[in-house]
Design a protein that fits this description.
single chain; mainly alpha; MetI-like fold
Amino acid sequence: MFVLPYLAVFLLFVVYPVGYGLWLGSDPRAYAALFADPIYLRTVVNTLLLLIVGVNVKMLLALLLSGFFLLPYRWVPWCFLIFILPWAMPAIPTFISAHWLLNGQWGLINAAIWKWFEVDGPGWLTDPTLAMGAVILFYIWKWTPFWTVIFVAGRTAIPGELYEAARIDGAGATQLFRYVTFPMLRSLYLVCTVLSTIWTLGDFNTVHFITGGGPVLTTHVLATLGIRDAFELGQPPLGMAAVISALPLLIPLVVYLMHRLGKERVQL
């Protein structure tokens, strides 16, 4: 009586969509068409850029900023409150606002450049390099606060006696971070980085609402390319092929994450 409703929901909303998607993406002709698409290679490069640059810069900034927000000053909590606002806001309106900020004709950024320097600002959304850079920048800006909160919580769990003993031995701020803070947070940092990479691999909102995949389809990532192929071009098998092509990267990350979590559970 209690298990059947959950089983029905699981079959209806997990097993059926995943199975149907895999069936759609099982046609070898879809992969042949996908790999022959000149946009696909650029899309893979963009996805790797977002994962390698965006995720790692975001996690490093979050780790460093977590120490700043634990400083014993009265104004620090207020700064922390302002800092987490981008993450607290819904993602879609945030990225739509970023799109209008970057508009080359009437966007706020170029309007400020014209007002202060009386020169035309760059085409943030019309230059492929600038557009992809804007995607990575606003991705970091949006999600760094979330991981900063995680690392703040991790830092507060480190016993204060370790810091006191290190200070007695003459350790400075850099040495405290190198020999106490980072070793104690290393497992948390690795797990969070892998988890963030998995989430980012399926991130659709950032690219779609900031650049829309433009200019001329040069800023697509695998998540947005799959939606484009499936719905805009009306070829669901091609869209599923684009999504499934990310599995060679996704599966090892999931396996490593499960292995790491299992190892941490055994140690506890």
